[in-house]
Design goal:
The complex is a heterodimer.
Chain A: E1 4-7, E2 10-13, E3 19-25, E4 32-38, E5 45-51, E6 57-58, E7 67-73, E8 76-81, E9 90-101, E10 107-113, E11 117-121
Chain B: E1 4-7, E2 10-14, E3 19-25, E4 32-38, E5 45-51, E6 56-59, E7 62-67, E8 72-77, E9 86-92, E10 100-101, E11 105-110
Parallel strand pairs in B: 2-11
Antiparallel strand pairs in B: 1-3, 3-8, 4-5, 4-9, 6-7, 7-8, 9-10, 9-11
Classes of the chains: A mainly beta, B mainly beta.
Chain lengths: ~120, ~110
């Protein structure tokens, strides 16, 4: 259980075009999804928090008009890189937050990551 | 915001030896500390996590310790094997929400 998929797995596009990346939680509902960007040999940098039915919350320095996020359902969030440029080339990874309920009535959350999307802008 | 520092950036160990990676965090409100293993081009995989109500947790060859007073936590891998070679990331968050990641440690296990 707790599988997260991303589509596409890799994409090459021309400078100036827009690219949409989908993140799906396959077997659970995720009210919250996160979008990360990872440059080669670097760490994961949180770009934005995507909440179902509301506007995404962007991290400082991330342009909301360039990276459009839509969390239209409890199992799908999309990231659209608008007017992509070569410096946007990166590995984009989403994660979905799952809630686990235990027998003692306690609960905890865990994030599950998608396989990532390799974006190359020519 | 939370700032997580991770050391060392690279670690080479002989197969069978132990590997230790250390992280410090800045936000005393953080209470969830997961460790992820990431192989090249793949997604991060959770290998172990610890919450602020415990000081140590072990899962077979992997253990994590937490010192909330000093705001640091460590990953210990014993009896390392070649398949342990990967990049390891520590992270910290408050209430299992936004994760702040360390810079990563590239672990190489020499056969």
């Amino acid at each position: 259980g707790a599988v997260v998929s991303q589509h596409p797995s890799w994409v090459i596009c021309k400078s100036g075009t827009s690219v949409k990346i989908e993140c799906r939680s396959l077997d659970f509902q995720a009210t919250t999804m996160f979008w990360y960007r990872q440059f080669p040999k670097q760490s994961l940098m949180l770009m934005a928090t995507s909440n179902e039915g509301s506007k995404a919350t962007y991290e400082q320095g991330v342009e909301k008009d360039k990276f459009l996020i839509n969390h239209a359902s409890l199992t799908l969030s999309t990231l659209t890189v608008t007017s992509a440029h070569p410096e946007d080339s990166s590995f984009y990874i989403c994660s979905a937050r799952a809630l686990f309920l235990l027998l003692d009535s306690s609960s905890y959350n865990e994030q599950f990551f998608g396989p990532g999307t390799r974006l190359t802008v020519l | 915001g939370e700032n997580v520092e991770q050391h060392p950036s690279t670690l080479s160990v002989q197969e069978g030896d132990s590997a230790v990676i250390k992280c410090t965090y800045s936000d005393s409100a953080s209470n969830y500390f997961p460790w992820y293993k990431q192989e090249l081009g793949k997604r991060p995989q959770l290998i172990i996590d610890i919450r602020s109500n415990v000081g140590e947790k072990k899962d077979q060859r992997i253990a994590v310790t937490l010192n909330k007073t000093a705001k640091h936590f460590s990953l210990h891998i014993t009896e390392t094997q070649p398949e342990d070679s990967a990049v390891y990331f520590c992270a910290a968050s408050e209430s299992d929400y936004k994760l702040s990641f360390g810079a990563g440690t590239t672990v190489t296990v020499r056969a």
